[in-house]
Amino acid sequence: MGEGGPEGCEQSAVELEPCLWGAGPRGGTDLHSRGPQQGRTSFYGRFRHFLDIIDPRTLFVTERRLREAVQLLEDYKHGTLHPGVTNEQLWSAQKIKQAILHPDTNEKIFMPFRMSGYIPFGTPIVVGLLLPNQTLASTVFWQWLNQSHNACVNYANRNATKPSPVSKFIQGYLGAVISAVSIAVGLNVLVQKANKFTPATRLLVQRFVPFPAVASANICNVVLMRYGELEEGIDVLDGDGNLVGSSKIAARHALLETALTRVILPMPILVLPPIVMSMLEKTALLQARPRLLLPVQSLVCLAAFGLALPLAISLFPQMSEIETSQLEPEIARATSSRTVVYNKGL
Length: 346
Description:
Elements: H1 16-20, H2 43-53, H3 63-77, H4 87-100, H5 115-129, H6 136-156, H7 166-193, H8 199-207, H9 210-225, H10 227-232, E1 234-237, E2 243-247, H11 248-264, H12 266-280, H13 284-288, H14 293-313, E3 319-323, H15 329-333, E4 339-343
Antiparallel strand pairs: 1-2, 1-4, 3-4
Helix pairs in contact: 3-4, 5-6, 5-14, 6-7, 6-9, 7-9, 9-11, 9-12, 12-14
């Protein structure tokens, strides 16, 4: 991770341990648990951290290399490291484990649904969403495929500390697909019936249809799949990482922050490529070689995706902070801390 560690921690011999093993929800130490201090790091620190998490090179890590990384971190945790192990090796092992294993279950996440696989496996879907002259069938297909992929990514990277019934996953999946397809088809029909538009303008407007459809579906997906948090509340921690209680108000904040992230994420991906492609299509090169349109659009979508993902998920800390005075009275009475933190999720 270079000179920066998880969530922007600085790499030094003194600070390496707390950054790696941040205090867990009940004061324990675990590789993937987030200490309260990590919720107050800078946007730049979070951005650098998530650049490591989404690094597609981790998709090619072998089973043997993963086992070695896990063992190295276990040796560090128990003070049994072999002489000569460097901080760089430890941070590399940390990066591999965080990118491949689920933080709660320590089980491998299926490759297409890892955050590091989001861009390489999601870009072809984005290209399909932005294809010009979509038919009703192709619109429905690409919206369905996109929300199916998103639902699987959300489920694979969910907070697994509490059981999540399959019915919630099915509700979120159906709600996201139905809302995305309905809005996309409805907007396409409106554009087709807009007689005031010239053919060129109609084609340009049609290219922007996927964004409102995907953004609204993403919100629906988050709310439906995490509705149980609103009903039961989520854990909040004090400044020492001790569990204070469960808060429904904190859950609302967590879902709001996550929903905003889901709206901002597709914005550069589905808005920038149509603008860029509308300009590139007028160049002599692409007009003379129309077969290059699809490869060029794929590269533009890949670049937009690579920019949007780390920016969007870095907007809010993984561990967000809130004043106890804004929470339920029983939470405020249960701690002397002025603020508490909670796991927002990704």
